[in-house]
From TrEMBL:
It comes from the Bacteria. This is TraB/GumN family protein. The lineage of its organism: Bacteria, Pseudomonadati, Bacteroidota, Cytophagia, Cytophagales. Transmembrane segments: none annotated. InterPro entries: TraB/PrgY/GumN_fam (IPR002816), YbaP-like (IPR047111). It comes from Ohtaekwangia kribbensis. Pfam families: TraB_PrgY_gumN. CDD domains: Tiki.
Length: 303
């Protein structure tokens, strides 16, 4: 049973550590960005267009395959860009990054908070929180989110590949250049490292308190993503409790760092960038940042 719990945990982290939580993107200032998850990048000296595609990290490659214009443009690209490259060392790295030192969940949470979290986890998965007692609270929040998605929008572990990993695998298969914009350590710092264990526990308990509305929010999130409605995704999650400084680490600073790489990649050859959809939105989103650099970035149809 322990090995099964590790399999579930690893799958959850593969879904999410490859990209940042959708909710992390939403404490930024609003700016008028059109509603689309697919964008064409031209101008500023580019001889051929490149593309930005906003992913939803818990959806299957089969959804991607239904987006005919996305897959057609993917074939024209010579370079495929993801947030993070997933390789054979990822599982052990993820397990290590999630382990706490010097404390456990039952010490960070009150008995009531531990029970409430355990009850929700058990309801969603059949597993008890004691099996994950050494893992940090943010990992538990990720696990709960992933289990909810699996309950209401299930993937077949024998057939489905989450879309971010799928783009990487297909790019490798098609002999394209496949690169990641950041390292594992950089991404896990944004998700885990910047938060104290106490702050993570606060965020987890807040999420658990909202469990009665979680299903509706999840269904709306899936629907708004499929509609390509970035504005409604932002509005849905705008009440998250991350501070401006936390959001800067989780989102804004990462986007700005990626902007040090993307123009050079676009100039070299046609590039297909697949990153979390909320990285495209807002004042510090990639669409706005590219436009400020002189590129023409226009929304295009996914089908």
């Amino acid at each position: 049973m322990i090995s099964n719990s590790k399999t579930i945990y690893t799958r959850a982290l593969l879904f999410v550590l490859a990209v940042t939580f959708t909710q992390y993107a939403l404490a930024q200032k609003k700016i008028a960005v059109e509603n689309s998850v697919f964008w064409e990048v031209t101008g500023n000296g580019l001889s051929q267009p490149s593309y930005l595609f906003g992913t939803f990290h818990l959806l299957s490659h089969r959804y991607v395959d239904s987006l005919t214009n996305v897959t057609n443009k993917f074939t024209t690209a010579k370079t495929i860009v993801s947030e993070l490259l997933i390789d054979s060392t990822m599982t052990m790295k993820m397990m290590a990054s999630a382990q706490m030192k010097g404390t456990t969940l039952n010490k960070l949470l009150t008995p009531e908070q531990f029970k409430q979290t355990n009850d929700w986890l058990h309801e969603l998965s059949g597993y008890d929180l004691t099996m994950f007692n050494g893992m940090n609270p943010m990992t538990i929040e990720i696990l709960l989110m992933t289990m909810m998605q699996q309950k209401y929008f299930p993937l077949d572990p024998g057939q489905d590949v989450v879309m971010d990993l799928y783009f990487q695998q297909r790019g490798t298969r098609d002999k394209k250049q496949v690169i990641g914009l950041e390292t594992f350590d950089e991404q896990t710092h944004a998700i885990f490292g910047q938060f104290t264990y106490e702050r993570q526990a606060q965020l987890l308990t807040t999420a658990v308190k909202k469990r009665n509305t979680a299903e509706e929010e999840l269904r709306n999130m899936n629907r708004f993503y499929r509609e390509g409605n970035l504005g409604k995704l932002e509005a849905l999650m705008y009440d998250e409790m991350y501070t401006a400084a936390e959001t800067a680490v989780m989102l804004d600073n990462r986007n700005k760092k990626w902007m040090q790489q993307l123009p050079g990649l676009f100039k070299q050859q046609p590039t297909f960038v697949a990153v979390g959809a909320m990285h495209l939105a807002g004042e510090n989103g990639l669409v706005t940042l590219l436009r400020k650099e002189g590129y023409t970035v226009k929304p295009i149809q996914t089908k």
